[in-house]
Design goal:
single chain; Rossmann fold; about 35% helix; about 15% strand; binds nicotinamide-adenine-dinucleotide
Length: about 350
């Protein structure tokens, strides 16, 4: 039996399901016949990310994952949890404590509520490759974690809580460490702006691509459908319980090389500017996903060039022009600007 068949008619909960990776995961879960409860406070997530999904299979709750009145009731209705909700790396630079409150403390709160629900058969905690910091060589799950940022540190704390719940309470937790994802619904705007959407939109609108530092920092980019499929598989493969699993395409590219490939895919000559390096930037990432392949048959299928072509087509299919989208993304380094604190963020309830 294909483990994904278990999802047919199954009730699952996705935190951060209105975000970039979360909304792709929700799409895949719906395709498998699951009923999906999405929990998202829409801080960076958007209702539009769930547009077109069947109302009889997706229920959106605009609620903070730390809410202690609504969350326990929602958790009792499901048997699989995918925890993706988080605040971003750039957010952690200007608001480190708030970042910790969601990414570490929030992860613990959710684990505790899920444990008490008494219904959870598998719990997928989505962490990040940023917990490794600047690495070297092929980075397996045994690579020593040494995060560069509070985001990486808070995410590491969250994943350690998930494993501790497994070891202490026998709670069926799995930890997933995705490497950088890209694809439709990725963020070009504000705190969440990522290099691939920014390079692509700038190329599409005839502007220069801005590289922070010398551009020799490396990343291992994974197309979002591959990332989301790996996360989905981790929720239905019992052998994953208690494990940490990387999800990566497994090929390294420098940011300089990336800029050239993006320009080529868009069909323009590369126009590149170098600005000073970003504080806390991770300089080397290359993921080894052989454990995920062995345990749950994970394969990243979409090459960087193919994924970038799909992303370009997606941008061109949208109603807005690249220039309009870029208005939300003035070029600024990570240290500049400060987003005002969230209103009444601690224990706030954002239910509609
Ligand atoms: N994008 C990547 O390249 C990447 C790589 C590795 C790991 N990850 C991890 O994957 C997950 C999803 O990342 P993403 O890129 O889709 O980011 P995203 O910002 O698009 O998604 C996060 C979602 O969480 C929601 N959220 C934030 N705080 C919340 C709270 N307190 N309560 C409820 N909802 C809340 C946001 O509104 C958003 O929809 C995160 O855990 C992130 O750390 C992402």
């Amino acid at each position: 039996m294909n483990p994904l068949d278990k999802l047919k008619g199954r009730k699952v909960l996705v935190t951060g399901g209105a975000g970039f990776i979360g909304s792709q995961l929700v799409r895949l879960l719906v395709e498998q016949g699951a009923f999906v409860i999405v929990v998202d406070n829409l801080y960076t997530g958007k209702r539009e990310n769930l547009a077109g999904l069947p109302a009889d299979q997706v229920e959106l709750h605009v609620v903070d994952l730390r809410d202690q009145t609504i969350m326990p009731e929602l958790l009792k209705r499901v048997s699989i949890v995918y925890h993706l909700a988080a605040l971003s790396v750039r957010h952690s630079l200007h608001s480190p404590y708030e970042n910790h409150q969601v990414n570490a403390e929030g992860a613990l709160r959710l684990l505790e509520m899920a444990r008490h629900a008494g219904t959870i058969e598998q719990y997928v905690h989505v962490s990040t490759s940023e917990i490794y910091g600047t690495g070297s060589g092929d980075m397996t799950e045994d690579y020593p974690p040494r995060p560069n940022t509070v985001y990486g540190a808070a995410k590491l704390c969250g994943e350690m809580y998930a494993l501790a719940y497994h070891l202490t309470y026998g709670f069926p937790a799995v930890v997933i460490r995705p490497f950088n994802a890209y694809g439709p619904r990725c963020h070009h705007e504000g705190d969440s702006g990522e290099v691939i959407p920014l390079f692509m939109l700038r190329c599409l609108s005839g502007k220069e691509m801005v590289i922070f530092g010398d551009g020799m920092q490396t990343r291992d980019f994974t197309y979002v459908e591959d990332t989301a499929r790996g996360i989905m598989q981790a929720g239905v493969t019992p052998a994953c319980v208690g494990m940490i699993l990387n999800l990566a395409y497994g090929k390294m590219v420098t940011i300089n090389e990336l800029a050239n490939i993006v320009a080529d895919v868009v069909g323009v000559a590369p126009n590149i500017r170098h600005d000073p390096p970003r504080p806390g930037d991770t300089l080397y990432l290359l993921g080894d996903s052989s454990k995920a392949r062995e345990v749950m048959g994970f394969e990243a299928r979409i090459s960087l060039r193919e994924g970038l072509t799909r992303l370009k087509d997606w941008y061109l299919s949208l109603g807005s022009t690249p220039e309009q989208m870029l208005q939300q993304s003035p070029v600024r380094n990570w240290e500049a600007g400060r987003r005002p604190p969230l209103p009444n963020y601690e224990w706030a309830t954002y239910q509609d």
